[in-house]
Amino acid sequence: MALALSLARRGLGQVSPNPAVGCVIVDRDGLVAGRGWTQKGGRPHAETEAIAQAGSRARGATAYVSLEPCAHHGVTGPCAQALIAAGVSRVVSAAQDPDPRVAGKGHAMLREAGIAVLTGVMEREALLLNEGFILRVTQNRPLVILKIAMSIDGRIATASGQSQWITGEAARAHGHMLRAQSDAILIGAGTALADDPLLTCRIPGLEARSPLRVVAAGTRPFTLPKRLAESKDHGEVLVLDTSLSGGQERPEPVAMLSALSAKGVTRLLIEGGSTISGAFLRAGLVDVLYAYRGAALIGADGLAATSQLGAREMAAVRRFRLESVTTLGDDVVEVFRPRA
Q1: Sign of the alpha-carbon torsion through 308, 313, 316, 319
Q2: Which candidate, 155, 142, 153, places its Cα nearest to that of 273?
Q3: Of 13, 264, 321, 326, which one has the greatest count of Cβ atoms within 10 A?
Q4: pLDDT, tens digit (0-9, with 9 covering 90-100), for 286-328
Q5: CA gap 293, 260 in Å, rounded
């Protein structure tokens, strides 16, 4: 199952609106006969990829799947039926698929065909892997990952607005991996106009994994700056008009997430600036926070990492739990999740 989960991770940022799934088929001699993961665009599915690789060795084999095999007809047929047709004798599934079209039906179909089914193996890891898909299905929003690159003293730019570069090459490459594993990347109009960033993945060999680029533009007319406008060969640029949420001249996180969910986005990476970051933090809609801390001091006159969060007393301060710390050259990346 650990191998199936590692295969599933290859699909992150590439398979929306589908989940990222991995499948490993072990034959009757205990040898790996087939491996598969959800392909770009969400199909073919992991199970059919693994079955095709296993061939006749799938008969009597055990299939390890990181998410319940689908039971409905879409662009492709049900993966549960494909496993039945392949003749597997046992299916080990990490977690149930919350999609109402599946939600236990895949496991039931397998059992009705006489296949032994074991569920809940490495379930927590499987649910975290597809957290974005699950949130989209159950809450009509993607997973929100906030990335902040800041100095030791919590500044994201100098007083004049310069921010390139607070962190070093290793930290920036790490951040580009986040882009490669995201369906969409969001910035505010102010950041777009000030920095005109490309927002692409620039890791050699992974350029094609660049996410959908999204600019939250408010209600006033907005024209894309030069580099964003002229880089359509790097992928789509979507301008989100927050007037859709009632015409407020400020970021409206819930409306933006709903609009992106409707486009199939399951994993959203926010790269700033301080206004858009503050809006999502105030709304309690940041699921994972990546804090890249460069080994530099800017000073109190620099631009703060977030806009005002409205906490006047310590009891109102937003608390996070630290999940990991990684050293990247002279810099550090800390990963946080909100405390329940």
Answers
A1: positive
A2: 155
A3: 13
A4: 999 999 999 999 998 898 888 777 778 888 888 999 999 999 9
A5: 29
Kindly write down the DSSP assignment for every residue of 224-258, as one continuous string: --HHHHT-GGG--EEEEEGGGGTS-SS--HHHHHH
Q: Is 271 a catalytic residue?
A: no
Q: Per the structure block, which two tokens stand in for 88? A: 């597997």
Residue 248 has pLDDT above 60, yes or no: no
On average, the pLDDT of the chain sits at 90
Taking residues 110-130, report their average pLDDT: 96
The alpha carbon torsion through 8, 14, 17, 20 (nearest 10 deg) reads 0
Q: Inform me whether the pLDDT recorded for 245 exceeds 70.
A: no
| Beta-bridge partner residues of 268 | 144, 184
- Beta strand residue intervals within the chain, DSSP E: 22-26, 32-37, 62-65, 90-93, 116-119, 143-150, 155-157, 184-188, 212-218, 237-241, 267-270, 288-293, 303-304, 320-328, 331-338
Task: Indicate the SS3 state at residue 179.
Answer: helix
Which strands make up the sheet holding 288-293, listed edge to edge?
237-241, 212-218, 184-188, 267-270, 143-150, 288-293, 331-338, 320-328
At 241, phi and psi to the nearest 5? -90, 110
Residue 250 near residue 221, CB atoms below 8 Å: no
The strand pair at 22-26 and 62-65 is best described as antiparallel
Cα distance between residue 103 and residue 53, in whole Å: 27
Structure tokens at 160: 């004049």
Tell me which of 47, 49, 68, 271 is the catalytic residue. 47
**pLDDT of amino acid 77:** 78
Which of 31-35, 261-265, 311-315, 319-323 bottoms out in mean pLDDT, i.e. has the lowest? 311-315
CA pair distance 244, 182, nearest whole angstrom: 24
Question: What does the DSSP 8-state code read for residue 58?
Answer: G
Phi-psi region of 292 (alpha: psi -120 to 50; beta: other; left: phi over 0): beta
